[in-house]
């Protein structure tokens, strides 16, 4: 899959941008705070329907424009079709809340002119984003590792995304009931219905995660070995919140039920569900040691990069289409060996956009195989 054109209107520091994008490696260079990351964010918005750095869609609307509207439009070419993906974000519908005048956010998503809900957009234009904050996949909380896995699977399986959404609603209702039982306002027998729902959706999620993590480990182990010149051994395992001997659906449901029964009194005492895929994690070790505790910053950054590039490989293997790689400031904090190996991998990609504030980090050999653009104050110019 190639993104051939991108148009931005009133997106962050871009007033109006239309950019033809070639295949291969595209290098976006310029000083900090000029719009390089904003451009990658806008492209990734077409893939996951969200601006990954924004707490609210309102944040992406250019405050120096009319302040009520932004549009991102991308044209992508696949083997079989041409996709026109458009996301419009409006804030021109006032409503009242707490006696203060606010503005309601409305998002209009269309693929080839056909209206779509946000969840149906995910996986249409497959993309992998690396952001400097992705080092937290290695060093941060389990929630960040679960999010990484969930985005990967959701681009491949829309049923998985819908199951995740349904699971979160079930979990919310179950937690509310648990607290009600604790406060003597509901009966324990009411748990049976929500336990059954939790097990049904949760077991499917766990089975899919286990399946993809096995593929992720195989792919990332080989890639990590190349980037580190066989000097470091990477291991990745899926760690559910309860013991599972085998990862068949029936085995998971059986163990899940037993774990809920075992933990019921504790959950009621604490007023929260402590068992299920919302408490699962990825174990990432390097040389047999927990990467979150013992890996250096350079090692952690390398692992995060490997996870993201492996995500791209899995998306291509499973869907038959190479995803778009969006790589924000990937070269900082890497030594020369890792930088060279990484650039070899990227230049062989079908299409990759890489940002940098220092072109000297890229050797003339790799630059000669790329298309370079200068980014300054929301203007993109081909060199």
Q: How is the secondary structure organized here?
A:
Blueprint: E1 2-11, E2 14-20, E3 24-29, H1 36-48, E4 69-77, E5 82-97, E6 100-111, E7 114-116, H2 118-121, E8 127-130, H3 136-139, H4 142-156, H5 158-182, H6 191-227, E9 234-239, H7 249-270, E10 281-286, E11 289-290, H8 291-294, H9 297-319, E12 324-328, H10 336-347, E13 351-356, H11 364-367, E14 370-376, E15 379-382
Parallel strand pairs: 3-13, 3-14, 8-12, 12-13
Antiparallel strand pairs: 1-2, 1-4, 4-5, 5-6, 6-7, 9-10, 10-11, 14-15
Short description:
This protein has 383 residues and is an alpha/beta fold. The chain is built from 11 helices and 15 strands.
Describe the structure.
With 383 residues, this protein is of the alpha/beta class. It has 2 domains: 1-126 and 321-383, Rossmann fold; 135-312, Up-down Bundle (Glutathione S-transferase Yfyf (Class Pi), Chain A, domain 2), CATH 1.20.1050.90. The protein has 11 helices and 15 strands. The chain has helices at residues 36-48, 118-121, 136-139, 142-156, 158-182, 191-227, 249-270, 291-294, 297-319, 336-347, 364-367; strands at 2-11, 14-20, 24-29, 69-77, 82-97, 100-111, 114-116, 127-130, 234-239, 281-286, 289-290, 324-328, 351-356, 370-376, 379-382. Helix 10 (336-347) links the parallel strand 12 (324-328) and strand 13. The longest helix has 37 residues, at 191-227. Residues 94-99 have low confidence and may be disordered.
């Amino acid at each position: 899959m190639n993104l051939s054109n991108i148009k931005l209107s009133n997106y962050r520091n871009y007033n109006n941008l239309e950019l033809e994008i070639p295949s291969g490696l595209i290098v976006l260079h310029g000083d900090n705070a000029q719009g390089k990351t904003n451009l990658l964010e806008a492209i990734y918005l077409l893939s996951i329907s969200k601006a990954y750095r924004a707490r609210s869609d309102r944040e992406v609307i250019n405050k120096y424009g009319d302040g009520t509207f932004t549009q991102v439009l991308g044209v992508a070419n696949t083997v079989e079709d041409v996709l026109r993906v458009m996301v419009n974000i409006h804030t021109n519908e006032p409503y009242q809340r707490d006696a203060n005048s606010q503005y309601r956010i409305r998002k209009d998503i269309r693929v080839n002119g056909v209206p779509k809900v946000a969840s149906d957009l995910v996986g249409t234009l497959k993309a992998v984003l690396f952001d400097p904050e992705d080092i937290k996949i290695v060093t941060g909380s389990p929630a960040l590792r679960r999010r990484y896995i969930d985005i990967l699977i959701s681009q491949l399986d829309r049923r998985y995304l819908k199951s995740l959404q349904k699971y979160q609603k079930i979990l919310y209702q179950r937690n509310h009931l648990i607290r009600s039982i604790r406060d003597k306002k509901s009966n324990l027998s009411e748990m049976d219905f929500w336990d059954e729902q939790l097990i049904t959706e949760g077991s499917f999620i766990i089975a899919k995660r286990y399946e993809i993590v096995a593929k992720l480990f195989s792919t990332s182990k080989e890639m990590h070995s190349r980037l580190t010149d066989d000097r470091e051994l990477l291991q990745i395992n899926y760690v559910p919140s309860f013991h599972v001997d085998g990862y068949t659906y029936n085995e998971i449901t059986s163990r899940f039920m037993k774990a809920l029964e075992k933990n019921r009194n504790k959950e009621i005492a604490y007023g929260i569900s402590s068992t299920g895929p919302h408490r699962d994690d990825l174990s990432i070790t390097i040389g047999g040691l927990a990467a979150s505790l013992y890996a250096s910053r350079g090692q952690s950054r390398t692992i995060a990069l490997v996870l993201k590039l492996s995500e791209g490989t899995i998306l291509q293997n499973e869907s038959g289409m190479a995803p778009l790689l969006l790589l924000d400031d990937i070269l900082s904090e890497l030594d020369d060996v890792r930088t060279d190996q990484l650039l070899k991998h990227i230049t062989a990609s079908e299409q990759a956009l890489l940002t940098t504030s220092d072109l000297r980090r890229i050797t003339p050999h790799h630059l000669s195989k790329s298309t370079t653009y200068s980014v300054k104050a929301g203007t993109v110019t081909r060199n």
